[in-house]
Each structure stands twice: as C-alpha cells, then as structure tokens.
Amino acid sequence: MNGVGFRAVSANRKSSLRRSEGWCELGVVKYRLQYRRYALPFRSPVRTGHGVWAEREGLIVRLEDEAGVAGYGEAAPIPHFKTETVDAAEAGVRLLGEWTSTEELGELPAGLATLRQAVGAAQERGAAAVGGRDFLGVAALLSAGRAAFAQVGSRVEMGFRVFKWKVGVGDIADELAMLEDLCAELPTGGKLRLDANGAWDRRRAERCLERCAGCPVEFLEQPIAADARGAADVLLGLAGDYPTPVALDESLVGEEDIERWIGAGWPGVYVVKPALLGDARGAMARLAQAKADVVFSSALETAVGAQTALRLALAWPGEPRAVGFGVWPRFVDDRFDGPFAAPFFRAEDVARLNPEDVWSALS
Ligand code: MG
C-alpha cells in the first residue's frame, strides 16, 4: 500500500465523516482498516464444563496510519462468556469501512468489547509496552479427568510448579477422589488450581472446597455459573467460608463486572482475560488501584491477542501469580500459536511474537 493511494482515498472519504473538521484536530489519526476472519481448528478439542470446543473463530484487525506504519489487534470472542459473537464483531468492523480514524474507532459500541480491544491494541502497536517484569511464571494446563495423570509427570520434569485442572466435567465423587491422587503427584511447593467453569451448584462447590482444605489447591475457579440465581451471594459466601480462595472467571466478562466485584469487596482471585475487555488497559489500572489479586488468563487466542495480553501481564504492578497461558501449542497450524508452554515466559519471548506473521498466514 503506497502513501499516495492512502492520501487520495482518505481525501475522498473525508467529506463523508460526521465531523470532517476533526481531521484537523490534534490527536485524530486516520487509518486504513483491514481485517481477516479466521476459523482455526484446535489440535484436540477443548473440554470444559460448557462442553466441547473444536475450533477458534475470531478476527485479526490491521490499522495502517498515513506514514504506512501498521498495528495489529485480535477480536477473540468467547460465546459462553456472553461476549459479542464473531459475526457481530465482523459486522462492526465492516460498518467502519476501509478508512477510519481514532475518532470513529472510539465510538464503537460498548457491546463490541472484543472488537474495541482489538482496535485499541492495533492503535497502540505495542508502544505502551515498555517497562515491567522480565518474566512471567506460567501454569501448566492439564486435561480434564484421568488424562491429567499421564501429563503431570512430564510437566513437573519440565519445571512447572503451578498446574491447572478442569473439574465439573465428570462425576464429582470421581473428580474429588482423583484430586487427592493428583495432588500427590505435585512437586514440593507445587500448586493445583481447579476450574469448574460454573458447572456446579452450591452444594457441590462446598463438597469440593471441604476436600481442598487438605490439598495444595491454589484456588477454585468459578465453582458456580455466573448467571445462576443469586450467584454473587453464593460466590461471596463460598469465598468467606473456606480457606481455599475462590476465583472469578466467567463472572468477569467486562469492565462493568470488574467494577461490580470490586464494589462488593470480592476477597478472592480475579481471573482476567484481557481479550474480553473493551478497554483492557483501563480495566487493569482499575484492578491495580483496588489492589486486586489477579491471574492473567488466555482466551485461547492467536499470537496476536496473546502478545497484547502478555504485555499487560508483564506490566502488572501487583504480586504476580502464574499466568494461565500454558496453552500452546494449541492450533493444528502452529503459525497461529503463542509462545509454547514453558514454566516461564521471558519478556523477549513476548516481544518476539510477530503479528505480521499471523496476518500473512491469513492473507
Ligand atoms: Mg476459567
């Protein structure tokens, strides 16, 4: 794309903008907007309390400014988290058209949170990613059910100390029996985090938390569904009644949820998927101000969204817990993967991810 073509087309476009005088205002940047929609099959389906997930759909957006400098972002909605759908995100980006500006991008509706996040990241181009930590601890993701036993030994040998295991997938009595056996496989000082993805009711959550008291369980994530009747009270009650911390994941879809839980004095952990936050940087600042206990978590996005999220994790000022990004390799086509799961991600591993490679692979 040459600069001359850009200027010619944006000159035509200029007159159709609602506030054409805005072009002359300081701070308004004009962009060429492009996107690619993807549907990427996972190497193996992801089993959670919500069912089986076989492929990841989303959008990569590319914004090129007048100087020809491009930035990339990813809209990676998760349907069962009640984000917008991929279709809605795509409709939003099509409505913007090929020529847009900071002003128009800032007017995207709040309901298109993952798209807002994507265009925000594309405008930043990683510019605000300076500083922060040199590395992040990473949690190893274990398969649900008995399959975890075949994986945990090699992960321990690799050096992982934090492990995540999905529960609420099978019968709870079987899972709690397996829990004790799995904890026995952990190294000294190792921790297991459990994620029920909202599959339980209060009674089953209590059974689990009773059993966790004797195990090195770091926290129990989303024991009951975010939209269950009285969910907030039940979650607050569970968090207050047991020594094992409770974590919110599906209950935190956007900035409003974060604000609500901070207001309720949530005493547990906040699992934050930056991919789902329209203004991820603003939300992280709010959580930091509230001294929230945060775990950064993957939305099973590609390397583009992973880089955005991991940059935020590297910049997080609070006490770091292992990030929930031990998920790659994940895609059948490994050109889309983030950094392969290792006990630590270094800042340079994150910096080395190249969104242009993902873009090229989709072009
Ligand atoms: Mg979760």
Description:
The chain is of the alpha/beta class and 363 residues long. The chain folds into two domains: 4-124, Enolase-like, N-terminal domain (Enolase-like, domain 1); 135-361, Enolase-like C-terminal domain (TIM Barrel, Alpha-Beta Barrel), CATH 3.20.20.120. The chain contains 13 helices and 13 strands. The protein has helices at residues 3-14, 86-96, 102-105, 113-124, 147-158, 172-184, 202-212, 231-241, 255-263, 280-289, 303-315, 347-352, 355-362; strands at 30-48, 51-65, 70-75, 99-101, 135-142, 162-166, 191-195, 217-221, 246-248, 269-272, 293-296, 323-326, 344-346. The strands form two sheets. Strands 5, 6, 7, 8, 9, 10, 11, 12 and 13 form a nine-stranded mixed sheet that branches. Strands 3-2-1-4 form a four-stranded antiparallel sheet, with helices on both faces. Helix 9 runs parallel beside helix 10. The two termini are 14 Å apart. The model is unreliable at 1-25 (pLDDT under 50). Magnesium ion binds next to loops.
